[in-house]
Design a protein that fits this description.
Order of helices and strands: HHEHHEHEEHEEEHEEHEEEHH
Largest sheet: 4 strands, parallel
Radius of gyration: 20 Å
Low-confidence stretches: none
């Protein structure tokens, strides 16, 4: 659903603000008087966090701190959900759960970890605040930003399928991620705030796939077969006619790469009675179908 459609919903009232602007946060909280607060705001691109580390810290840590402090003052009984990330685990080997060590390797992961330790764990212990955090692994949908590898792949392949684009470039094809459906993750967020006591949970499918596998699965949904040849930066993916569809470009490699993320959501399954309902194949099909439909509509 587009923002324009959402904005006209009688059940939703949009309030404008900025996590850099404390007075704006104050005004929004006073007007809304919320029972539940979901802090999903972030500079959420890991790659960009290396290029804009100060902005990443300003939003992901300092901005969250402004919001939570104002919430404590204005609506202290509100239950708060704060979005954490699997990137906090960094180089810790999978499977990662709530007891796994944190070892972030990016400004994004570092800022999120500081917010988690100080604002979630710290404020919960010190101020008895009802605040919890979902340590979410990659959550995808057709609304994902077009510069993220999953959406970039499905959108590019849709353009290629319809003859509007010849090829596209990616970075590390061997990076493994636990890709799940964003809708499943949102259910988990809501469930966390319905519990008697606040607690943090890993939310994941428990299954990981490489970027290469995601490309192959997306291509298959479009009736395309990708055949790989070459090595390293010279590797390419070709279609059945031998045309290059995917290239590897070093500019898309991160300075420090998280190689393998795979979450263990046992606690969420047991205590929240949550589970991922969407398989990897279903997720890829959902994203490919949506992009193919949107691109076709734009052509007419």
């Amino acid at each position: 659903m587009r923002l324009k459609t959402i904005a006209h919903s009688p059940r939703l009232h949009l309030l404008y603000g900025n996590l850099r602007d404390s007075p704006a946060i104050t005004r929004a909280l006073k007007e809304a008087q919320p029972d539940e607060i979901y802090n999903l705001a972030a500079q959420s691109d890991v790659g960009i966090s290396f290029k804009c580390p100060e902005e990443t810290w300003e939003v992901n840590y300092a901005g969250a701190k402004r919001l939570i402090r104002e919430a404590m003052r204005i609506c202290p009984k509100a239950r708060i959900y704060h979005a954490s990330t699997s990137e906090m685990f960094g180089t810790t080997p999978p499977p990662q759960n709530e007891l796994s060590a944190f070892a972030p390797v990016s400004p994004y992961g570092e800022a999120k970890l500081k917010a988690y330790r100080e604002l979630v764990c710290g404020y919960r212990a010190k101020h008895k605040l009802f605040i919890c955090s979902g340590i979410l692994f990659n959550h995808e949908s057709s609304r994902r930003g077009e510069h993220f590898v999953t959406r970039k792949t499905t959108l590019s392949l849709a353009h290629i399928k319809l003859g509007l684009q010849k090829s596209f470039a990616l970075g590390n094809l061997e990076a493994k991620r636990d890709w799940g459906f964003a809708g499943d993750s949102v259910r988990a967020m809501h469930l966390m705030l319905q519990q008697k006591t606040p607690k943090d949970y890993v939310i994941a499918t428990g299954e990981s796939h490489t970027v290469r596998e995601f490309v192959e699965a997306a291509a298959k949904e479009l009736g395309m077969t990708i055949r790989w040849s070459g090595k390293g930066l010279r590797e390419v993916g070709k279609d059945a006619k031998g045309r290059i569809v995917v290239r590897v470009d070093k500019k898309f490699f991160r300075p420090s790469e998280v190689r393998d993320l795979r979450g263990d959501a046992s606690s969420a399954r047991k205590e929240l009675r949550w589970k991922s309902h969407t398989s990897f194949k279903q997720l890829v099909r959902m994203m490919v179908s949506a992009d193919l439909k949107n691109v076709r509509q734009q052509m007419h």
